[in-house]
Amino acid sequence: QVQLVESGGGLVQAGGSLRLSCAASGRTFSANAMGWFRQAPGKEREFVAGIPWNGGIPYYADSVKGRFTISRDNAQNTVYLQMNSLKPEDTAVYYCAASKWDLLSYNSIRSVGLYDYWGQGTQVTVSS
Questions:
Q1: Which among 22, 76, 82, 112 has most CB atoms closer than 10 A?
Q2: pLDDT tens for each residue of the chain, 128 residues long
């Protein structure tokens, strides 16, 4: 099993920044690709960003491209999501996820069903 714990959420004004962290523990060698997803009230969980195990090409949802950056530190078993130029529509619970697979394509890394482990989520609220 892999345990994921997110941190760094909070309340920020539009245009501001936040940095989310996701610390992995347990059988971390079982985790390959890592991703961030979010879910707003009344909406389905959606892909935000993903990164393969070796820190290769990251992928982003169009809605966050150019504003968010995903990175990982495998030595620290931690994944980050730097969020800049935040908008009210970014308000959601953000979840970290880990896959047993090393997902290398956009279509795979954005697929909720290919992730095996999930964190409890951290709330991000952007005020206008």
A1: 22
A2: 899 999 999 999 999 999 999 999 887 765 789 999 999 999 999 999 999 887 678 999 999 999 999 999 888 999 999 999 999 999 999 999 999 988 888 999 999 999 999 999 999 999 99
